[in-house]
Amino acid sequence: MTEHEYKYLYTVNSPDDLKRLKPEELPLYCDELRHFIIDQLAANPGHLGSSLGVIELTVALHYLYNTPDDKVVWDVGHQAYAHKIITGRRDRFSTNRKWGGLSGFPRIEESPYDAFGTGHSSTSISAALGIAMASQLKNEERKVVAVIGDGALTGGLAFEGLNNAGATNTDILVILNDNNMSIAKNVGAMNEYLLSIATSAHYNRLKDRTWNVLAKVPALRRFIQNVGNGLKHGFLQQSNLFEGLHFRYFGPVDGHDVQQLVRVIRDLKRLPGPKLLHVLTVKGKGYAPAEKDQMLWHAPGRFNPETGELLSTDPPGCPPRFQEVFGHTILELARRDPRIVGITPAMASGCSLDIMMEAMPERCFDVGIAEGHAVTFAAGLAATGLVPFCNIYSSFMQRAYDNVIHDVALQKLNVVLCLDRAGLVGEDGATHHGVFDIAALRPIPNLILSSPMNEHELRKLMFTATQGHGMFVIRYPRGRGVKPDWECPLETVPIGTGCLLREGRDLAVISFGPVGNDAAAAIDRIEKEGASIEHIDLRFVKPLDEELLQRVAERFDRIVTIEDGIIEGGMGSAILEWMNAHGTTPHIEMLGVPDQFIEHGTPAQLRKFCGYDEDSIYLKLKEMLSDGKDSNR
Question: Which residues contact 630 (CB under 8 A, 6 or more apart)?
């Protein structure tokens, strides 16, 4: 569909324009909006399935509410593409998730229509309550809506927000977008509970009949408000969960009937106090391939919109992703060692724990979007002698910091915390970069902090972590490694030992993790110009390899440290502290992420911006060598 074939899409440049459409025109606009998103994401990858699933809901909200004065808070933000297009960003949508372009998530700085910045789940209810309470205190007339998915509702913060909102009796509408999926299929008691509400045949038949009558007789609508809870109690006894939290529950309703959504939400706007509308949607709605395989089409990459064929950009024979090496290795370890179990907070496919799940489902646990619970659950398993591998994306681990300290490290439990997506992850941007883990975890006692330079090292570290060393953290990046022949024997790595990769005489480079491969390439280039560089892969930031550091301290007065994480408090800081404590004063240049939040772009663009891609490392080494010559004259 070309621009000239759209009848409504290019007439809507703001919610005010949307309000000019007649109710019967809204389904046609939704169809065009869905087609536009499919075409855009086919060429510029992003979060497809979630966005397609909430198009009708998004249209209904902006049709009815006076945004941006009224506030709509989107949980996570995967589903906010239609929202961005409606709110004046359609013509820039081709820049979505690109360097210098639109963020893939809502951001306050990007638009007044983005009421709250999101990227991690389960925050919407708490944030919306804060906005609603502030409006109440300031005597401002404002409606506030939180849109949260059923997957995000498993997060503990969502329950804290519901509990507080119900107790305050603040005027807030929570819309539960229930598609039985987060990224993968939802799990747990909450999922079963919502399913029971959605599939209660007696209740839904009676509700639908009552609604049809009331729609024709507006004066009776107050009647449904009085008898609605009685109907739910009579036909679905457990439906008092939300009501027990002092929320008035409505639904479930068809989330793809935009005209019905408009009618229902218009009525709910008139009701004071906390309300919850349960909306049933289909992830990937309107695009057959995305509906058929919802997990794959959450964020599918480039594809042919006509055929649904995924367009791979991977060259033949390329190395596997680090996550895939993790997935195959944990299964190999688990087959050897019956103590090993796997845990993931709703990221089974993203971290490749699904490989073990398929082979050993009884020894793998998807606990839902609940990172803190995942860590403490792992601690409980470890307390009985099991060896849990808890795989969490690095940026999501921030939500489990107290659990790491209080429940694992303090008790010296053998939990293996695998931090996937460590470092700069790319297009998801500031909310998803895993750049704080080194600085956050390094001060914690009873904790080992490591990172492999390549796939072989990852396998060896995973094997070593099973051998009773207490809390063992392994961080590794998103993306591919460097070894197509990734399989290797499983061998023990001595704790706190690095690797002397190359001897040199002019200056020393100390790298941590896979960024060491960029460092090695830069060193190759500069040594062709006659320089001699010593290169150490530190491998462990805690404990440090003091023998290697002593060697460096005795032989070099200039050192470059390189890490895929924030500089302040990171690996370079650890080296500087050690050198100072041991009475040496070399000049140390620390390369890594500066003291700022880094935006979205390709990983290569971001590393260049931060100054530690191969070219930047090469230039820094050249500068250090030149400075050294000048100081020796």
Answer: none
SS3 call for 511 = strand
Q: What is the DSSP letter of 22?
A: -
Q: Tell me the CB-side half-sphere exposure of residue 479, using CA atoms within 13 A.
A: 16
What does the alpha-carbon distance between residue 337 and residue 330 come to, in Å, rounded to a whole number?
Answer: 10
Q: What is the 3-state secondary structure (H, E, C) of 560-582?
A: EEEEEEECCCCHHHHHHHHHHHC
pLDDT tens track for 364-384:
999 999 999 999 999 999 999
Helix 201-216 vs helix 221-235: angle between axes, to the nearest 10 degrees?
170
pLDDT tens-place string over residues 173-182: 999 999 875 4
pLDDT in tens, 248-297: 999 899 999 999 999 999 999 999 999 999 999 999 999 999 999 988 89
Residue 271 CA to chain centroid, in angstroms?
34
Antiparallel, parallel or unpaired: β 248-254 and 172-178? unpaired
Distance CA(447)–CA(441), nearest Å, equals 8
91: closest CA among 6, 173, 193? 6
What is the token pair recorded at 33? 């909006």
CB 323 within 8 A of CB 294: no
Closest CA to 403 of 431, 434, 370, 435: 370
Predicted TM-score of the model (pTM) = 0.89
- Taking the C-alpha atoms of residue 592 and residue 611, their distance in angstroms, rounded to an integer, is 7
DSSP string, 604-630: HHHHHHHT-SHHHHHHHHHHHHHHHHH
Catalytic residue at 371?
yes
* Maximal CA-CA distance, the chain: 95
Single out the catalytic residue among 143, 399, 421, 620.
Answer: 399
Which of 54, 362, 48 minimizes the C-alpha distance to 179? 54
First and final C-alpha spacing in the chain: 69
554 is annotated as an active-site residue: no
**If DSSP states are collapsed to H, E and C, what string results for 150-216?**
CCHHHCHHHHHHHHHHHHHCCCEEEEEEECCECCCECCCHHHHHHHHHHCCHHHHHHHHHHHHHHHH
Q: Which residue out of 32, 371, 457, 563 is catalytically annotated?
A: 371
Is 56 strand, coil or helix?
Answer: helix
CA–chain centroid gap for 94, Å, is 22
pLDDT in tens, 547-591: 999 999 999 999 999 999 999 999 999 999 999 999 999 999 999
Residue 72: name the closest of 155, 5, 142, 23 by CA: 142
248: enclosing H helix or E strand = strand 248-254
With tokens 């205190």, the residue in question is 137
- If pLDDT is split at 50, 70 and 90, which confidence band does 190 have? low
Our answer to whether residue 283 is catalytic in this structure is yes
Does residue 530 contact residue 494 with C-beta atoms inside 8 Å?
no
H helices present in 20-102, as ranges: 26-43, 48-53, 55-64, 81-84
Tokens coding 235: 């036909």
Pick the catalytic residue from 84, 248, 283, 478: 283
